[in-house]
Request: fold
Amino acid sequence: MVSRKHKRAAIYKKLQLLRSITNSRGHSKTSIILDASKYIEDLKRKIDVMNHQDIATAEDTDIQASLPLRLRVEAQEKGFLIEVVAERSCCGLLVYILEAFEELGLDVRQARVSCSDSFHLEAIADKDSHGPDDDDQIDAKVVKQAVLQAIQNWSEISEQK
Reply:
């Protein structure tokens, strides 16, 4: 009899711990477990998003030493989502990035750019459908490297000024 009470007490404590960790408002075992399951699924989604975000690090390039930035290139169904964020305004950087897109044969379908206090570019680009090399497949890594090279080129030129 005593061991059953200990088991129940242990299970109750564990359920209350699970309830507090998952911010569950449920009172029954079933609702606490369902809330925990939803919480776990939400965490999995967040991890997937973080894993799929390709953020440029200092290992990728020397640029970050002189220009702290974040670069994300994400493959989408018909192209790429490219996001470049720098902590300061980068006069002329947009031209270099657009030239890199052109060299890759990417058409910018939609873009938002801000260059006032900081630099923020968010663009959706896809492969030029009337280009001569339609058979060439480019992936997010190629686009990322091209944008990083454009940023590096801009950085070198802007340092000379």
